[in-house]
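re: ur question from yesterday

yeah so i grabbed the chain u mentioned. its 148 aa long if i counted rite. heres the sequnce exactly as i have it in my notes:
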Amino acid sequence: MLLLKSDNIVQFKGINFWLCSEQCRDRFNQRPSLYIGDPKHGKSVKQHGVKVEKKHTIKLVLPDNHESIDLLIQYLNSLMGVIQARINQGQLEIEYDLIQVSLGEIESFIKSTGIAIEQSWIDKVHNALIHYNEDGELDNLGHPYKDN
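ran it thru and got these structure tokens back, copy pasting raw so excuse formatting
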């Protein structure tokens, strides 16, 4: 018997949608048009199986404890949309599918673990531009288009 967690049920246009996780629910609430299509325009980008792969390097203030680093990588690799996360020369290299997770969400997750992201002012400006571009890209992908 499958028990549905009521926290992950979202009502949109009079229809209840069950979502697999809090992360998925939050993404759906931000941009439902990425997930569901409509009769006039057809399927959404997610229903079409569109993937938008991104790759970034994030400077972290890594703990001396290798167990904590391994746990962070394990958790990042289990996040929906993360293709691969690894530490290379003290920096986090992360590949992800923008349709499922954004760099901002990944950074928020990292910060929630207590690990700090090392950023100069130029890094902060660079990341703000990436976040802005990703938001625009997601908004554009959320616009319905006619199925062929």
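noticed a couple things. The chain has a mean pLDDT of 87. also The CA atoms of residues 77 and 114 lie 17 Å apart.
anyway ttyl
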